[in-house]
Every structure is written in structure tokens, then in C-alpha cells.
Amino acid sequence: MKSENVIRLSRKKKISIKRNGFTLIELLAVIIILGVLMIIAIPSVTEYIQYSRKNAYIGTVRNYIAGASTRVNSGEFEMYDTSATYYLPASCIPLEKGGDSPFGELEEAYVVVTYSGRGYDYYWTSRDETNMGILLANEKLLNVELVKPEITSIDTEIGVGDRQKILIINNCNSNDLTEKAATSTIVEGGLLQEGNEISKRLYNLIATENLEDGKKVLDTAASTFVSSSTGIDFDAAPSNTNGKGIYIRSGTENNQYPIYYYRGEVTNNNVVFGGFCWKIVRTTETGGIKLIYNGIPTGGKCNNTGVNSQIGTSAFNENYDYNAYVGYMYGTPNSSSYKEEHLSTKMSKSSTIKTVIDVWYDKNMTSYTSYLEDAIWCNDRSFGTVAWDNGNGTGTEVTVYGAQTRDYSETATGPSLECVNQNDRFTVNENMTGRLAGNGALIYPVGLLTADEVTFAGQGWNSYASNNYLHTGSFWWTMTPYRYANNHSYMFRVNSATYSGNVEDAFGIRPVVSLKNGTLVSVDGDGSSDNPFIVQ
């Protein structure tokens, strides 16, 4: 019996061992599967490593640009030649950490800098010992896709924008970065190539047009078309002695993006964008370009006036009997609270004119939104100060708003581009880099001009200027409240000057948009109505 039990146990043990093993076929299958997985995985891992190294390359480039920016903005390097593109060797920019390409040592590398009297733009071009590198690229457009292999040389004879003079710095210890410290080369053409078109940056064009004898033209000083030593008189019409052309708003001249505006009988501010004609009004604090609608091109020309320069007519608000109706958007009419009366959020009520503008934009402009900046559209409901005004902006309280006393009273301080209250700064987003916080109430980046912007352009309260570029021969609305009195809300409207108008009356609508900083236009255009700039 014992022997039989032993035999049985032995058999069971052998059977158990056989079941836990692998056959040769199974082992081969596992090896094949692992091989396939490795074949799939290795390229992915290699690609990831390559991507990481390229990303590190971009990081190194950004460090160099940051180092150059610090030295330039501190005055250690002074680049004042507005006609020049500066090539600053990377070797001139000491870094605390790193400094070479992740693929090898840098052979040729430059931070490329331009200055146009308003601030600096930075570019980069480089190659390393493995011939990995980047051809000329704007700082804001840097990404891993720009890091390319097989770059055997970089071009140091490229003028950025309309700056055809090339200054290659060869003395890193000099802060006089002119020909004394550089190799100077004049290059034919020197314009940015965008596809098959030759283009110029619109902001730079405006900045260049503003210069007189290489200097900026301020609106608070005498110049070619301003005879007064104190500058433009905004209570008087524009003329050959009181402002005609492009001016810098005093107080912004040292900003990164000085604010330029057109005034008087100018003929070089016409633009075709999105299939429509527009006129340049001014630039913004972020380098954008504000455009006012001016109809539909005819044969490529923009000669529209009157109703042809409008998208239609509308009341500003169909209701008029409370302070709330001076709002582009508003809260609860006849409220006891200013905040509730004038509340502007995405949930607030839209004015009649805003609804018309939004419908037009939705139908015609949504495919062009990426070209536009989220600018501030000011519906200034701050209080004015006059002897007979004791209102608080609610219900039927007689209330004078800021622009009336700022521009159109005996104690006028003159037009302003400031928008005092965040609630009145109409924007799509509340917080954006480079500008004050907005109210985030808009659906689309579109609005109307302010009465102050109209005054800067030359059509103020006392400035009957039919020779002004904003004059169309028809009345049209601004976005600026005038006052509430006599059971009516009043807004500013424009013809040959600015006037007050009942909000329920129908006047022309001229939408305003703001092109992003860096917008390119065809160099073939000269801005005239017969040959407008064309946004690329």
C-alpha cells in the first residue's frame, strides 16, 4: 500500500511541474511580442528625447533673449538707430547657467534686435556644431518646430521689417552700438517675407510716419503743422497750424508702445481688412491698431462717405427714461444703487446698438477674430462736475457724465484716453497682459469710438471740421455718455463736430475693431483711399 501511495504522489508531482512550465513555442511567442513592443517603443522614446532636447534648445534661446533684453533696457546697450537691424552675438550675453545647445556647442548665434522709437522687438537665429539651429524667428513665435537639423549657415544680412541697415555688433564691451562698434551692411529689400507677399508691420509704419527729422512728434509741442509752442488746441479745428497728420499722445512717448493717433485731413490711413474698408484712428497701449468701419471696397478702393460708410442706423437704446440707458450694457433701470443701475457683466442687458453690432460681427467677422486684440472699449460713466449737477447716476437723477465736463465745459481739461472705471472698460476677458483689467462683458472684440478719440482726431465740441478724416456727411454714434436730464438719456454723436443726441434716435453705426500688434500689411499699399493697406 505504501509503495502504491508513493507512486501516486510521484505522478501527481510530475503532473504539477509540467503545468507550471513554458513550452518552447510559448517562449518564442513572448520573445517575438517583446521584440515588436521594442520596435514600437524605441522610435517613440527617441522622438520624445529629441523633442525634449529641442524644447531645451528653446529654453536656452529664451534665456539669451532675456539676457539681451536686460542689457538693452538698462541702457548698457543703446540701440537708437530706427533704420537698423542689430545682430547681437550670443557671446555678448553672459548667462549664469548653461548657454550651449543641448546638441552641441553653439557655432553661430545672435539675438536680433530692432528699435522703432517705441520699444524693442527681439528675434533669434543660430546653429550649433551638429548643424541643429533656428533661422530668423520672432521671440513670440519660438517653438520646438523651429529647431531644424542640417542648418549649415545662418543669414546675417536680413533686415527685419523695413529696417534695411544691418549692424553686426563686434565689440561686446561698447554701449555705443552704432557703426563704431559694428560692421554695417546695407541690404537691398530687407523686408519680411510672408508666403509670397512682401509685408510691413503696420505699427512700425505708423511710427515711421510720425518722425520729423528723426524725432517723435508729440501733441504738446510745436511741429510742422502745430504753430503753438504748447501743442494742439483741442477746442479748435485741425488745420495746417493746429494739427494735421500723426501725433504721439503726450505721456505715452516713453512707453513700450507709444500711442499714435491720426488728426485732421489725413489721407494715408485707409485699410482693407476682412473684405471691408477701415480707417486707422490710433494705436493702443499694447501696440494694437484701432480701425473704424468705412464701408465696402469698390474696385479695391475705399472712397465711401455718408450712409455707405456705416453698417446701418439704430437707436443707441430704444428706452431712454433712466440713467441706465447711457450704458452700452446696463443693470437695473431706476435702481437706488449706481452699481446696480450700471452693472456691466456678460449677464447684463445689451443696448440696442450693441445687439446690432454683435449680429453684424457674428455674420461677417468671426473668421477674422484671431487677427484682433481684446482692446478696451470705453463707455465712460464716471461723473462730471458742473454747478447744477447733483445727480448720482441712478433712476431719474440729473447726472452729468465725465466727457461733458472733460471736453465741453468752461473748466475743460481736454480729451483723455483713460477709462476710469473697470466696469466701463468693455472687454471680452477681464485680465489681459499689457493693459488695465476690463469688465469681461463682451462676446466679440468690437465696439465704438469714444467722444475723446473723436476729439483727438479733430472733431471736438467746438471743432466744426468737415475736412476731418472722420467726417462722412452723416451723423453716427460714439460710445460716450453725455448726461441724463429732462427725462432723457443723451449720448455723443458725430457729424462735422460732436453733439449730444437722444439715445432713442436712429443714427449711423460705425463698428470699431483693433488689430493685434505685429499685424502685417502689403507693402504695395500707401494707405490712400485709392490704394489702401491690405492686411495680410
Textual characterization of the structure:
- By secondary structure, this protein is of the alpha+beta class.
- The chain has two domains: 52-190, no CATH class; 201-534, no CATH class.
- The chain is built from seven helices and 26 strands.
- The chain has helices at 2-20, 24-73, 202-210, 338-341, 352-364, 402-407, 451-457, and strands spanning 84-89, 106-115, 120-128, 133-138, 165-169, 182-186, 192-194, 197-201, 245-248, 260-263, 270-273, 276-283, 289-293, 312-315, 329-330, 349-350, 377-378, 399-400, 425-426, 476-485, 488-494, 498-502, 506-509, 512-515, 520-522, 533-534.
- Strands 4-3-2-1-5-6 form a six-stranded mixed β-sheet, with helices on one face. A five-stranded mixed β-sheet has the order 24-13-12-11-26, with no helix packed on it.
- β12 (276-283) and β13 (289-293) form a beta hairpin.
- The longest helix has 50 residues, at 24-73.
- It starts with a helix and ends with a strand.
- The relative contact order is 0.10.
Question: Features of this protein?
Answer:
536 residues; single chain; globular; six-stranded mixed sheet; five-stranded mixed sheet; 7 helices; 2 domains; 26 strands; 23% strand; alpha+beta
Record the strand order, biggest sheet: 4-3-2-1-5-6
Q: How many alpha or pi helices?
A: 7
* Terminal-residue CA separation: 101 Å
Q: How much of the residues is beta strand, in percent?
A: 15-25%
User: How would the global form be characterised?
Assistant: globular
Compute the number of structural domains. 2
Mean pLDDT: 83
- Count the E strands: 26
